[in-house]
Design goal:
This protein has 293 residues and is α/β, with parallel strands linked by helices. It is built from twelve helices and eight strands. It has one domain: Aldolase class I (TIM Barrel).
Amino acid sequence: MNTQQWNGTGVAIVTPFDENEAIDEISLKKLVDHLISGGVNYLVVLGTTGESATLNKEEKQQVFSLVKDYSNNRIPLVAGIGGNDTRAVVSAMNSFDLTGYSAILSVSPYYNKPNNEGIYQHYRHINDNTPLPIIMYNVPGRTGMNVSAATTLRIAANCNNIIATKEASGNMEQIMQIISNKPEAFSVISGDDAITLPLIACGACGVISVVANAYPRLFSDMVQICLKGKFAEARPSHEKLLPVIQSMFAEGSPSGVKYYLSEMGLIKEYFRLPVHGISDAHKETVREIMKSI
């Protein structure tokens, strides 16, 4: 199993909508070209940034298939499939047509607030029933429960189909414990754009990024420089991107990144409720930041 294909910059790609809230296939194709030409290493389709929570099963398959067909083997693909009903997650993993996809990104269960034994058993069950390798995803700010370092390491040791974790806890001590004690074949991927540089310095293999939707070349070049150990050389790009990252998340994601992309002419600024656009005052802030990039 080649885990090195997840080194570098993955992008949690947004799902563009039109004025009728239908999937905007033309804009999605433009975005795929923008990301591939920007040098990113792989795409994550229908993660949180892709507003997967507001798409029905048919629409999800529409997006999975469109990105697969249009990317045409130019870049590896990861399918976002997660949830808070373990049996439903397994059913979804095995019912979608995932031809052309190399892995599944599966977020830890949310809302139910299971304890860490429940989280472990959830991942153990999907590990035993998945059609593809799995990247687990710890994002306690959204799920309400942290996947502890001990639980992640237990999963890494006992679940051979779970090949990596996307860590978005923001807890550097926890992430360093995982990196220090994980099996060699298990990868740690940054889930926070702002701390990607220090996490690679600690041993992470790259990032699954939101900001790279808008600035794929700048961000992916920075990541590649970091992976070569040239952190002083990477710092100017890191510092240049920090205000972008902060502004992109200040009033919620994907609200922020969709505004950046709309200003770039890549997509239109449409959402499905409860996701809503950023304020007019914040739009002015974003426009000023964009001028400086």
